[in-house]
Amino acid sequence: MLDQADGYMTADGRQIGPVVMEMKNITLRFGGVEAIKNISFDIREGEVRAIIGPNGAGKSSMLNVISGFYVPQDGQVLYKGVQRPQMRPYQVAQQGIARTFQNIALFEGMSVLDNVMTGRLTHMKTGMFSQALWKGRAEKEETANREVAERIIDFLEIQAIRKTPVARLPYGLKKRVELARALAAEPSLLLLDEPMAGMNVEEKEDMSRFILSMNDEFGTTIALIEHDMGVVMDLSDRVVVMDYGKKIGDGTPDEVRNNQAVIDAYLGVVHDE
Amino acid sequence: MPTDLLYGAEVVLNGLMAGVLYALVALGFVLIYKASGIFNYAQGVMALFAALTLVGIMEGQVPFSHLINATFGTNIHHFGWHVPAFAAILLTLAVMVGFAYLVQRFVFRHLVGQEPIILFMATIGLAYFLEGVGDLMWGSEIKKMAVGLPQGGSLWVEENTQWLGFGNEDFYGFFIDKLDMVATVIAVILVLALVAFSQYTKQGRAMRAVADDHQAALSVGVSLNFIWILVWSLAGFVALVAGIMWGAKSGVQFSLSLIALKALPVLMLGGFTSIPGAIVGGLIIGVGEKLFEFSFGPMLGGATENWFAYVLALIFLVFRPQGLFGEKIIERV
Fold first, then answer.
1. Which tens digit of pLDDT belongs to each residue from B22-64?
2. Distance between alpha carbon A205 and the CA centroid of its chain, in Å?
3. What is the CATH code of the structural domain delimited by B3-319?
4. How far is B221 from chain A (nearest CA, A)?
């Protein structure tokens, strides 16, 4: 399936483009522990790609490899068809890969708007000295960036808390602000680490809606990690399933659902002694 | 107006200006602490080193001349030129930026993620290292800071405040040091510039981001290394300004590095993370110790300025450990 190089059309009529990110034979070790064992998969432009698996399967490690926080011992990362040299996380971000964190990493002391504006840092070109000397250009740039930030704040329905310091927000809203900051970077690949962890049903529905319309309206390519099988199946175009650092399944939600290895991993299996 | 009240007012004014000088030193601490969580014990020595370098460059001194002479048996001390103050300040600034780079490259880059106490120890080492380098480079004689800052009391202020005495023969008008006035103006400009920088520029925003959360800062494309070099450079710049002011006041000598100790109570009062806190803390300490000396000093045998600031800071620590403007410590259970 899906071997069309230039992409394909989904059932609901969205165009899925060529491969943006390709992971080739990635192996990641922490001391003697292999967190990721020789895994390959790709992410296509415009799709919602999920990585699922039980606790400790290595999902977050995989996301950290993509975003440069972890450096794999083996394997290659190909971004937009070019092999990526070893990079620091901030360089990866500058390449257009934005992310959120499982435990939320926000600038707690800043307002919501300031947080979202930091998402625009990679788009700010004027340097320190021209900002001091050439007020006009810096101001124009600031206004343009501000407009993008405000548009995203509107989109994620957090206008009411624009000026509130993040530290005062409840958990669910913090998750949304973090998403806003990542989206503000207008990333070519957006990585979401358990965007719905710890949320109630209503918040989960909101978040799912945002993820789908983000993908639909802005055409954002999204790779997300999720625990909850049900949510993932509704959201994603393709799913990678991991268990104990190995890839045990890869395909459309339907294919994965009927994969015996996946069922075993999730439901447990009786081993013959 | 009664003479006592007039003297009191003069004491307050002088206290405010002394406070500005304390605040200048405290500011350097706050900058680095906010951005990297490092309490930089070396801030005072940085001020000394900047002052030494500035004077050395202006006078055309050959750096490491003692070392060179001892090694090669030569006898050189001066290049024989004099560099104008403005150019020398720029050159010194370049030296401080270079210092910032070296500190980040060879010390703190290797200590990322270490306990605060380890980072603090590193800055203690840095302080004594830098003091030694300063001695080796420029010699240990006391030098004059001749950058053209005005000295002495301001006659203008004295003449124009004389009327406040309303014919009182004992009152000659307020005595205010010209240097203190200049320092105040410079400190105000410096603080406004720093605030504008951190609020309205890309690098300023990135700096605040790093101060708040390293991981999050990385994820929005901020290089921690670059920001830390920037912050140490800024602290070096503030140290240079403080070094010039204190150097002009009391000569460039190695006891200058002790002004760092004066900044400690200022920080306890104002909070380690607040730029306005450093200013207000400095002013309170400046005014407080002068007023205390003025009103109780004679009773207690004088020299209360040596300890008053610390007692005030201790009292503050008990009732408001985060300082006046520090971030509130809330523990969620």
1. 888 898 898 888 877 888 999 999 999 999 999 999 998 888 8
2. 18
3. 1.10.3470
4. 4
